[in-house]
């Protein structure tokens, strides 16, 4: 996957995102937060009546949703898209079905495909868990999803929202350290992107998940698995060991009476359907006199 241009509406440093994706390609599994959000999003599938024939999981390995989607739709064809070649190889290895697995005999395996190999209007469910906040141009990607979906197919996604890690932002602002992370897109703006891309009946909502750690070191270790500081306004030079100790001290100052450090993550959820194309309206509409009289007769009397 080629690196998107940096000169887009959203301020995001693609090189930092690519560095995070390289680390993810060596991770044993998806981050815990991603897997938890995937579980919560999968609970919503019970409200969807459409039974997809083809399920496309966008950035599948990092989303941690493979088993959930296979369980929800065992009869569907499952496709996976990864953002880099390294993650594609890593994901294929992790998703490989052992010879003794019942999935192998039922045929419920996952095929890894390139985005350009997916035929337009061929997918009934496009699933994207916890990845849209790492995209330079989410509006362009949402439009691509719309093209891949069949009529009456639907998209479901989740991502980080602007309410995430506010305490960390406050520390960096108070200490004059620049930005600790890139700005996240508001869920209402994501809903507008769905409408502009041609989706019907978009539904957006959000919740706040609070994670806690027993030390600042553990906190930083987990944050590193969740992403990189992709803000173009971040500090440009290398940090020193002395600066790191100051950061750890500031984080430790957030500890509550139980000794644990708590940070909030805003999770935005969205889903929308691709409406069936409407027949074009004629430039001229003819109504007979008899039809007009019938319409007048059927008007309800005035109150």
Q: Strand order across the biggest sheet?
A: 3-2-1-4-5-7-6
CATH class membership of the domain at 14-163 and 183-210 and 266-277: Alpha Beta
**Count of helices?**
12
How would you spell out the order of helices and strands? HHEHHEHHEEHEHHEHHEH
Strand coverage percent = 15-25%
Notable characteristics:
303 residues; alpha/beta; Rossmann fold; 7-stranded mixed β-sheet; 12 helices; 7 strands; disordered N terminus; transferase
Q: What can you tell me about this protein's structure?
A:
- By secondary structure, this protein is an alpha/beta fold.
- The protein has a domain at 14-163 and 183-210 and 266-277: 3-Layer(aba) Sandwich (Rossmann fold), CATH 3.40.50.
- Helix content is 37%, strand content 20%.
- The protein is built from twelve helices and seven strands.
- It has helices at 14-24, 32-42, 60-63, 66-72, 85-95, 102-106, 138-148, 166-175, 187-196, 216-226, 241-252, 289-297, and strands at 54-58, 77-81, 110-112, 123-129, 149-160, 199-213, 261-274.
- Strands 3-2-1-4-5-7-6 form a seven-stranded mixed β-sheet, with helices on both faces.
- The protein is globular and about 60 Å long.
- Residues 62-157 form the Methyltransferase type domain.
- It comes from Piscinibacter gummiphilus.
């Amino acid at each position: 996957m080629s690196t998107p241009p940096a000169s887009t509406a959203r301020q995001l440093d693609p090189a930092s995102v690519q560095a995070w994706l390289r680390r993810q390609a060596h991770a044993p599994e998806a981050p815990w937060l991603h897997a938890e959000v995937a579980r919560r999003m999968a609970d919503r599938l019970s409200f969807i009546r459409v039974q997809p024939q083809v399920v496309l999981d966008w950035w599948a390995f990092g989303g941690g949703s493979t088993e959930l989607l296979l369980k929800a739709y065992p009869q569907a064809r499952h496709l996976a898209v990864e953002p880099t070649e390294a993650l594609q190889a890593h994901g294929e290895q992790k998703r490989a079905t052992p010879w003794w697995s019942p999935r192998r005999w039922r045929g419920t395996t996952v095929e890894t495909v390139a985005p350009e190999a997916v035929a337009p209007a061929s997918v009934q469910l496009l699933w994207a868990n916890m990845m849209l906040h790492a995209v330079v141009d989410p509006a362009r990607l949402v439009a691509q999803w719309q093209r891949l979906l069949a009529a009456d197919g639907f998209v479901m996604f989740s991502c980080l929202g602007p309410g995430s890690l506010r305490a960390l932002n406050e520390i960096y602002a108070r200490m004059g350290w620049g930005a600790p992370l890139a700005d996240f897109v508001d869920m209402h703006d994501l809903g507008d992107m769905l409408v502009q891309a041609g989706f019907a009946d978009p539904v957006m909502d959000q919740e706040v998940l609070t994670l806690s750690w027993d030390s600042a070191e553990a906190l930083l270790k987990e944050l590193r698995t969740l992403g990189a500081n992709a803000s173009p306004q971040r500090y440009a030079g290398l940090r020193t060991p002395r600066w790191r100790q100051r950061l750890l001290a500031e984080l430790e100052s957030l500890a509550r009476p139980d000794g644990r450090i708590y940070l909030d993550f805003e999770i935005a959820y969205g889903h929308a359907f691709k409406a069936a194309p409407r027949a074009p309206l004629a430039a001229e509409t003819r109504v007979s006199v008899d039809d007009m009289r019938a319409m007048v007769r059927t008007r309800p009397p005035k109150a």
